[in-house]
Amino acid sequence: MKTHTLINFNIPNHLKTNFDHLVDFKRVSRTSVINTLIENYCRSELNHLQTDGRINELISTMKTRPQPKRVHPRQHDWDNTMIVGTVYEMNDDDDLSHGGW
After folding, report:
1. What's residue 86's pLDDT?
2. How much of the chain exceeds pLDDT 70, in percent?
3. How far is CA 31 from CA 8, 13, 23, 41, 55, in A?
4. Using one digit for the tens of pLDDT, what is the confidence trace for 44-87?
5. Under 8 Å between Cβ of 90 and 101
6. Can you give the residue ranges of every domain in the chain?
7. Whole-angstrom Cα distance, residue 63 to residue 10?
8. Higher-confidence residue: 8 or 68?
9. CA 62 to chain centroid
10. CB 33 within 8 A of CB 27
């Protein structure tokens, strides 16, 4: 049984050069780095898909579940509200010519 497959792909020259310098510096093979990156990508994407599936399932469940009636507070509870106002007394000396009091 074959456990490995050769994959060929195109890569920009500048990226290959930088990659080669880094793997040489770290003394690791290109294959091991690429395999690790692909494995991490697969794990991450599968995790995201599972999370998305749970979110979609929750949303679907919420849409089909009967919603409880919302309780609205009274708009005006005048029994418990203190109304405060200002009283302005006009004198005969007040100048109303400019639109003011």
Report:
1. 60
2. 69
3. 12, 17, 10, 15, 36
4. 998 988 888 888 888 888 878 777 777 766 655 555 555 556 66
5. yes
6. 13-71
7. 46
8. 8
9. 20
10. no
The secondary structure of the chain as a DSSP string is: ------------HHHHHHHHHHHHHHT--HHHHHHHHHHHHHHHHHHHHHHHHHHHHHHHHHHHSPPPPPPPPPS--GGG-----------TT---TTS--
CA dihedral defined by 21, 13, 42, 56, rounded to 10 degrees? 130
Greater model confidence, 89 or 3: 3
Which residue has tokens 């020259």? 13
Q: What does residue 98 show for φ and ψ, rounded to 5 degrees?
A: -100, 15
Using CA atoms, how far residue 76 sits from 81, 82, 83, 84, in Å, is 9, 12, 12, 16
